[in-house]
Amino acid sequence: MRASDTPAFTVALEAALLRELRSNFDWENQARFRSRLTPPVIALSEAATRLGCWIRTTRTLELSRPLVLSRPWPEVVSVLTHEMAHQFVDEVLQVRDETAHGETFRRLCAEVGVDDRAGGAPVPVEGAEVDRVLDRIRKLLALAGSQNQHEAEIAMRKAHELMLRHNVEHAGGREGYLVRHVGDPEKRVSAVDNAIAALLAEFFFVKVIRVPVYLPQLGKRGSSFELCGTRANLEMASHVYAFLGATAARLWDEHRGDARVRNGRDRLSFQTGVIGGFRDKLVAERAVLRGTGLVWVGDADLDRYYRARNPRISTRKRRVRVGGAHAAGREAGRTIVLHKPIEHGPSGGGPKLLRG
Asked: Which of 112, 145, 164 corresponds to the end of one domain?
């Protein structure tokens, strides 16, 4: 949505926003704090440098209006729970002889899965070794864009092996897991999006959960996928999410003439088949790597981080219609070569995803 398309933030939209914040407070209070917090006044402030604040004297939990209106909703909720932790230390534990982010506060945040940093958005903490690994993976993915199919396949397999080896050798004992959100919260999540998210969780060393999102400027609810993992794995998983979404759409356009594709209603079936075909390819590659002794058994520390961050998790099973279009998509998916590196733009520009 362009800035010119954004509706004025009216009194009605602000009232709806405050109701949503209250609803989020109630849910987090029950899920993380066992409903021990007495609901405070929730207010918006004009502060531009302070994202949130717990004010004991007036029992007010303030959030910055510029934050709420400009940052992704999961960051808003992160700041909300951060301030709820301050309220808990103050009113429930009644610890008032420590600094605001002292030992008790940090211990509580670790116990209930709240970010103890005040910025809302997690800060990368991994060092030079991770940057070297990312650089090698970028170079391999650049080679995977070769017009020579054989060379491209070899480069992709080497990138897969490097990712697996790095994670097998460094699993456990890590610090500084981060989160990243992918998907357009203004659009309905499709079966294709869900298939890609499941593939990321299975092969790209991240935990994935679909989280509710509120859009204050529109007064609407949506959802996006939250990825948890190390910085290197988040960069790769974010790239794969964008790459596969774009590739599934491109392959659909290219295979409209396939006799097994009857009409536009087959699009989702075909595109989920594409993701399934790419998964078949990764399963085969992982089997070969297993023969070399590289076996991924998971990261228990990441599992604990994910469970603490998401104290209540529900799962749903969705069926995908399997037929000729799905089979056609699966065949096309087995030819996909993951390529194009994740590159950084000009100074201060942050990472950019190059789409195939």
From this structure: 112
